[in-house]
Amino acid sequence: MFFLGPSELFIMLGFIVLLWYPYYRILGRIGKNRWLSLLIFIPGMALVLLWYIALTSWRVQEV
Question: Which of 10, 19, 62 has the alpha carbon at shortest distance from 41?
């Protein structure tokens, strides 16, 4: 039987955060729903989400 120990789970959690957080921040900054970033965990949807970000109009945010 395959079992992940605490160190493997911690590493997996780190990779999940490293993948998810940039999408979360980018979507928030361009005025889209940040929770769309959860779509990257569905196989193939990360690429679709990148195309969505590239081709939709962005809300201009004052800095």
Answer: 19
Phi, psi at residue 56, to the nearest 5°?
Answer: -95, 160
Distance CA 21, CA 37 (A): 8
Structure tokens at 21: 């957080």
- 4-47: pLDDT as tens digits: 898 999 999 999 999 999 999 999 988 889 999 999 999 999 99
* The pair of three-digit structure tokens given for residue 38, joined into one six-digit string: 């959860």
Could you tell me if 34 and 26 are in contact, meaning their C-beta atoms sit under 8 angstroms apart?
Answer: no
Residue 45 near residue 35, CB atoms below 8 Å = no
Q: Are 40 and 19 in contact (CB under 8 A)?
A: yes
